[in-house]
Amino acid sequence: CERQDFRASKQRLLVVANRLPVSALRRGKDSWQLEISVGGLVSALLGVKEFETRWIGWAGVNVPDEIGKEALTKALAEKRCIPVFLDEEIVHQYYNGYCNNILWPLFHYLGLPQEDRLATTRSFQSQFDAYKKANQMFADVVNEHYEEGDVVWCHDYHLMFLPKCLKERNSKMKVGWFLHTPFPSSEIHRTLPSRSELLRSVLAADLVGFHTYDYARHFVSACTRILGLEGTPEGVEDQGKLTRVAAFPIGIDSDRFIRALELPQVQDHMKELKERFAGRKVMLGVDRLDMIKGIPQKILAFEKFLEENPDWRDKVVLLQIAVPTRTDVPEYQKLTSQVHEIVGRINGRFGTLTAVPIHHLDRSLDFHALCALYAVTDVALVTSLRDGMNLVSYEFVACQASKKGVLILSEFAGAAQSLGAGAILINPWNVTEVASSIGYALNMPADEREKRHHHNFIHVTTHTSQEWAATFVSELNDTIVEAQLRTRQ
Ligand code: G6P
């Protein structure tokens, strides 16, 4: 009865993420142009129908003046978004520094950048202070907009300090936190100077979610080994307070991709691509240009395949879409040059006057062009060195209903746990293995391709992003209800 009352009225869901699902471009003193990005999280939340959603996050731009801030806040309000304004120095220390130069590589088992190791060690404290300060700023905005009965869902490694900040401001707030990256083994996590503070802060949430059971297990082990707390099948217990910890594997809005394939503009794109690459098999990589994606490893494996299989040299092409990201972080700048150098060398080595084996693009494609590309692909290559889930593999599968192409998938992507039976799993560090998997995939008989595809297609179309979000939010609500009932007893 308690539960029903809770669900009867339309609750508000405050989604707090580092970035808003909107990019803002300043057009004048008090005018802004907004562009909505229909990312995974946005479509996921369309599934949470019983809640009214508000977004809170950084607008991604520096707005030093009050007129600009006021105008942007007003424009964003129409999109149900609420901005957190971070100045350049905070962004540098919090986002480029602590989030993307420390937590991101560490959570993906890459350690600190080699040359920067000492420098990072020295600047660690100031970056962590900025991280906490930024999280406090997010908490202030959440607090300002919070109304009794709202549910607050915090996202990702940028906001690990947020659950604690929110609970300190209002202990009755319902707070969930979800990590979109892997959570590393406790042996890796314990190298972080701020290891305990971060864990304790996350534990302030009522529900903590991860993409896979392994990440959840690593988190619980970190809490038991580093903090000395008790891990239970439900989560982590600290002096009678239980923080529920569980796996909630994300998915995609598969219908959106499947429907797009019927559109005339997508069909036109497909026709163009088929003509352009007629007589050649198409292999595809779609990644943010990030060191965790294993792009150099993928290209080197492709080189090895061409080296060992001269007959294939004019019969296959690798299209690599590498979307630039975090371009102010030196490690990302180095990666860009490294990838360009390798692609140039291989194209010089195996290219002819009329064709090159690798088409490398440093930019994103619009949604329709991307769907067309997925649909005409024979073999998709996902070589992440570590990846929370990797939704590119899901998107590819969703667009392959008629072609039934092959997915080569890193065993270090969360998706390997759900698409493992249909994909060819590889260790991206083993270039020889990846090269021979490329050969296997290109030569795979149709009946095997169909079977593998069928397995993955069923998974991708039944485990959608909408279902993911609805499950997390409903469990968050239930957790709180249980907690309230406990207090009442
Ligand atoms: C990963 C993170 C997200 C992040 C995205 C893009 O998927 O888990 O939280 O938004 O990368 O990175 P960016 O730094 O551009 O926001």
Q: State the oligomer.
A: single chain
User: Mean of the pLDDT scores?
Assistant: 93
Ligand types: 6-O-phosphono-alpha-D-glucopyranose
Percentage of residues in strands: 15-25%
* Global morphology: globular
Structural class: alpha/beta
Family: In the C-terminal section; belongs to the trehalose phosphatase family. In the N-terminal section; belongs to the glycosyltransferase 20 family.
Protein name: alpha,alpha-trehalose-phosphate synthase (UDP-forming)
GO biological process, one term: trehalose biosynthetic process
EC number: 2.4.1.15
What does this protein structure show overall?
With about 500 residues, this protein is of the alpha/beta class. Helices cover about 50% and strands about 20% of the residues. The chain has 19 helices and 17 strands. The strands form three sheets. A nine-stranded mixed β-sheet has the order 5-4-1-6-7-8-11-10-9, sandwiched between helices. A six-stranded parallel β-sheet has the order 14-13-12-15-16-17, sandwiched between helices. Helix 4 crosses helix 5, helix 12 runs parallel beside helix 13 and helix 12 packs across helix 17. The radius of gyration is 23 Å and the shape is globular. It starts with a helix and ends with a helix. The N terminus is likely disordered. The structure holds 6-O-phosphono-alpha-D-glucopyranose. 6-O-phosphono-alpha-D-glucopyranose (G6P) binds next to loops. One of its GO terms (biological process) is trehalose biosynthetic process. This is alpha,alpha-trehalose-phosphate synthase (UDP-forming).
